[in-house]
Structure formats: C-alpha cells, structure tokens
Amino acid sequence: MGLENLTGLTRVCQTAILTEGNMEQKYEEVLEELNKRLTSYLRKEGLTSVTESSEKDLKRLVFAFIKDFLEYQLSFDDFSSLCEQILIELQDRSDRRDSDLFSICNYGAELNWYIRNEPVRAADFLETILEWYREPVT
Predict the structure, then answer these.
(1) Which of 10, 44, 45, 51 has CB atoms 3.0–4.6 Å from 6's, for a disulfide?
(2) Contacts of the segment 88-94: beta carbons below 8 A, 24+ positions apart
(3) Cα dihedral across residues 55, 59, 65, 68: positive or negative
(4) Where is pLDDT greater, at 51 or 19?
(5) CB-based contacts of 126: which residues, under 8 Å, 6+ apart?
(6) According to the 3-state scheme, what is the secondary structure of the chain?
C-alpha cells in the first residue's frame, strides 16, 4: 500500500515510515493500534462495530471521542483518526452524507492536517465541533 492511501493517524507516521524502512510493517502497526482504540470505544458504548451501528449510536461514539479529547485522553492525531474511521463508514451510507455527524467527522478527520498547516482554520473546525458537542444527542 502506497503513501497516497495513508490517512489520519497513519499520515502522522509518514516520516517515520520513510526513514525507518519497512513501510508495510509500520503501516500495519499503526492501523492495528487505531483498530484497538476504536474497538475499545465501541465496547465502552456497548456497540459491536461501526458498520452495524445506527447514526444515533455513532453520534454517541463521536461524543465519547470529543469528551476524551477535551480531557486530554486523546491526542489531536488520535482524535482525528477516530473521526476519520466514522467518516469512512458514513461515506458508505449515501443517505448520511448530508448529516451533521458527517460534517463533524469530516472536520475532525481534517484537524490533524490543519493544525500543522493552517492553524486558524483548525481553530474554526474545532469551534464547530465543540458547538455540536454541546448539543444534546438526538
């Protein structure tokens, strides 16, 4: 798998992958760690998988990501990667592409790039995410 396919948490590891050699092994290690973290969140929320979760369940899951991010239990990169995993699922659900959750996950997925390259825009994304977080889950 080439670097053009790396996303979220794995994007942060591009430099390490390039300088330390075995790209495929590093990529797999990063994905495994991300999957473990996502599985942990799913279990905490009483869910079995992202694919089998309703939009309401996915909202609860993203709320848990945001809560932990705000409590410094998730880094920017981990938060961004987890949002991206939900975004990928929502992209596969064509009827969900216009949802608030889709937009929030898109903002979250892009945070790790924007915080390094366009910090003002990252702040705008984060503000939008926090406004959404303050709304009750419906």
Answers:
(1) 10
(2) 89/50, 89/51, 89/53, 89/58, 90/58
(3) negative
(4) 51
(5) 107, 111
(6) CCHHHCCHHHHHCHHHHHHHCCHHHHHHHHHHHHHHHHHHHHHHCCCCCCCCCCHHHHHHHHHHHHHHHHCCCCCHHHHHHHHHHHHHHHHHCHHHCCCHHHHHHHHHHHHHHHHHHCHHHHHHHHHHHHHHHHCCCC
* Separation of first and last alpha carbons in the chain: 39
pTM across the whole model: 0.77
Residues in the chain, overall count: 138
